[in-house]
Structure formats: C-alpha cells, structure tokens
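step: validate -> pass
step: tokenize input -> pass
step: predict -> running
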Amino acid sequence: MLCRGDIARYLSGLSLFLFLLLPVRALAGAWTLDEKEFLNITTLRAFQADRFTDASGNEFSTPDYDKLALETQLEYGYSPTLTLGAMLNAQHVHQSNALGLNDENYGIGNASLYLRKQIAELEGWVISAQPMVQLPRVGAGYDLPAIGNDDPELEMRLLAGRALFLLSDCDFVNFEAGYRHRFGDASDQVHLEGTLGLRPAPKILLLTQLFVTHSFDLDYASLPTDPSTDRDYRTVTAQLSAVFEVSPSLSLQLGVFHDLYVRNTGEGTGLIFSTWVRF
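step: predict -> pass
step: emit ->
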C-alpha cells in the first residue's frame, strides 16, 4: 500500500520551515494533490539567534535576534499531475542593538507563487518539476530589522520521492534540488533538501529533515540580519517534527529546528506549530 494521498499531504507542508529562509522554503515534495483537492497549511514559528558567523567563518556573540512569523500556504490540485500553490506570511522581528536599545519591525514578507508538475514515475520514484517566483515585498518598509526584500526571485526545482517500508507501508523519502536566480545585487543560490518520514503509529508521522542553502558569493557584513533580505549567506539546518492526525481533514505538526552550519548570517534555534486542513 503506497499511502499516496497521505504522503502528498504531509510533504506539502513539511518544507514550510527552514525559518531562516522565510518565506520561500514552503516548497512541496514530489507528490501532487488529487484533482480539485485543496490544502491550507497555517504555521506559527518562532526563532532566536544570539551568534553570528561572518563570511570567513569567524563567530561572535550578538544581541538576541527574535522572529515570530505566521505563514499561510495554499495548494490546489488542478489535475492529478499538476498542483498550483501560493505562500503568504506576516512577521514580527526584534533585536537589541549595541546600545542596549530595542529595534522592532513588523509587516508582510515576500509572497511566492509556484506550480508542481509530475513528469515521470521511474522504478517507484515520483519525479516532479516545480518552477517558483518570489514577489517583491510589500508593506514592510525599510525599518530594521529587515523583513523581506525588494527584488523578485525565480527558482526551478526538481523533486524525487518514493514510498519506503521501514516502520510501516506509509514511510517515505523525498529529495529536492533547486537553482534560484536572485535579481538585484544578491548572488544566485542552490537549495538542497532531504526528508525521511516514518510512521510509528497509524496517526503519527515523524519527520527528519535537512535543508541546505548555498549562495555562490558572500558579501562581508558586520552585523547579523535576517537572510530573507537580499543578503548572501550559506546555511545547513536540521529539523525534527511530529505530525498528529486529528481527523482525515485536519493534522497538527510540532517541531524544532537548529542551524548546524552558517556563513554570513545568524545561528539559532526555533520552534514550529502548524495546522494542515485538507478538503
């Protein structure tokens, strides 16, 4: 039993996170939704960083940087092999400055539009392509700490997933590789993602994930800022989470993530809580 519908639903939401790269990390796995199926994932995530590593690898302590975001991901199954998607988010950021004063900002971050097209099935693997456009920010202004950026971005991503039979017949693995062209002064990026999903009980799904972002060039900043601006940065982030099925149409996700490697950005830890509604 492939559990195709379950895998598609969980993968559609699990990439919501790599919080440091908001809002463009909410990219789905290789599976597509059923025709006329609708999925709404709402995520609340909190992140804190108190260390910064520059482009040369020098690490130093910084005033606390705190970020709270509310994200909404919408997906619609246009056909059995084509899913349409959109991402929206609102953020509140806070950072103490060198004088001990507090800087705060809030607003709407960058929105993203994408589609996911299944292009092949090869020996149990589902292969899909996913083009995405990230729109310039609106309403966040130019206050610091920054929210979003002013330039659009384009990405093409290839995705491959397959069912596994480890703890149950609904286990799965998913891999993604994307190339992102960033307009403006920021350099282009490569994004890599890997996910292992295991189901120890019929209504519980455990997710282990790794996210990699690699900017081809690094600028030399003196202060940590949110890498969702036009900064160049490199990160490797791990996330562990659990998804609990409340009903066939509602699931809840709770997880923690931590930066394993960073360059030219802050290093920290965060929590996520998501509700997934499907109909």
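step: describe -> Confidence is low (pLDDT under 50) at residues 12-27, 224-228.
step: cleanup -> pass
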